[in-house]
Amino acid sequence: MSAAMDTESTYSGYSHYSGHSKKAHRQGRDRHKSPRSKDGSRSEKSVTIQTPPAEPLLGNDASRAEEGQDDNWGETTTAITGTSEHSISQEDIARISKDLEDSVGLDCKRYLGLTVAAVLGLLVFLTPIAFILLPQILWRDDLEPCGTVCEGLFISVAFKLLILLIGTWALFFRQPKADLPRVFVFRALLLVLIFLFVFSYWLFYGVRILDSKDTNYHGIVQYAVSLVDALLFIHYLAIVLLELRQLQPTFAVKVVRSTDGESRYYSLGHLSIQRAALVVLENYYRDFTVYNPALLTASKSRAAKHMAGLKVYNVDGPGNNASGQSRAMIAAAARRRDSSHNELYYEEADHERRVKKRRARLVVAVEEAFTHIKRLQAEEQQKAPGEMMDPREAAQAIFPSMARALQKYLRTTRQQQFHSMESILQHLSFCITNNMTPKAFLERYLSPGPTLQYDRDRWLSKQWTLVSEEAVTSGLQDGVVFVLKCLDFSLVVNVKKIPFIKLSEEFIDPKSHKFVLRLQSETSV
């Protein structure tokens, strides 16, 4: 990126900087990361759990691009101009076209399933009504009169169909949360069962009633009522299979993020591997701290610095080059091993000292800014209603006083890529609107929060791939391991079955707690 910075212009303000430098950094990250992602996609045989193609993400080399970056909000910033250096290869075009084809295929599969379910549901609700109306239309004059009991069955059918309609809407008509790689087995079995059930009823109706033109209209109505009752029982079976079966905890899963080792434990019921992966991802966005690749570059840069300090000299001639270099490298690494832990200790201590120092400055700056807000509010109460300042203007008024301290703290803790100036101003105006304290405002910045706390563009994990040795439609079992991979990291899920617990009862006799206190007659004077 430094080669592209031949034309620079210096100006004040953060918005112009965020519009140009972020694009340049995103181009640099695409050039560095695209070969690695292509190699990884060739070596894995997996299924994709979500279809939309991911946007360019922040790579592990973000800190190197950040070192040459001046992102001071209130100070001089750099605008990068000139011709674009972004290039795309034939392999990139093929990969993009493959992603588009996969997304179109999964969309067609989803809409096809919805269409089949909708047609089958319409057939289910119209069948009982058709059973009752067809005799009235085809051979009305030959039918026996419908008595009071028969007319009461009409009300029963109407209310049962209404209850079935509401229950079907509540159970099946939901906004889909994800695109799963395979069909939901229990739902497919229920659809097949309903189709066979309705088909068998129509077959019996056509043979025994339509062909013979049965005149017993009361019996025909009871036949329709029996169909509705059976459909209600199938709906109850669907509730048991789709909702109740998975509620009882049966397995304990451990989820580990491959890059930094952060882990969580969850309890799951009887689920398939793909549905368990969906539950894990839903909990990941809520429980895991946001993935920050900039925190992982410190150890890599430290190891590279140690290796760069080793110098190997070939004193035996070109014939002993390989063995001489290997022995020299091993000896130098052994000598530096004793001092490396001291360097790590002092680096971490110095980093903690700088974080505490800049955190203290940030807390003081924010408290002073909120104190200024209270003074402004007291002054605004004395003004006319038309001259009062809205929360957005108040946030813009006090933001420059805390911008430098906040920017330095975010850079020290390597969180600056998750917070833009616009998002900070929105959060500040939200705190001012709801009369929140400085601690409530700083809670978002003093420690990294869960992924859902940040904008969707900064999640760094949108498209996931499920890798499993077992079929993704098979149920969870003890010892099953599957991996959820995204562009920059992966989640390793290990499944363990909750052991069978045997409790025994021990009876304690209440009389065993009684005791006798004997006092001596002689006491000291």
UniProtKB/TrEMBL annotation:
Transmembrane ranges, per UniProt, are: 111-133, 153-172, 184-204, 224-244
Enumerate composition-biased segments (Polar residues).
74-86
Q: Where is the composition biased (Basic and acidic residues)?
A: 36-45
InterPro entries, sorted:
VANGL
Q: Which UniProt keywords apply?
A: Cell membrane, Membrane, Transmembrane, Transmembrane helix
Q: What is the protein name for this chain? A: VANG1 protein
The subcellular location is: Cell membrane
Stretches for region Disordered: 1-86
What cellular component terms from Gene Ontology apply here? plasma membrane
Q: How does it sit in the membrane?
A: Multi-pass membrane protein
Q: Where is the composition biased (Basic residues)?
A: 19-35
User: What family, per the record?
Assistant: Belongs to the Vang family.
PANTHER family noted in UniProt:
VANG-LIKE PROTEIN
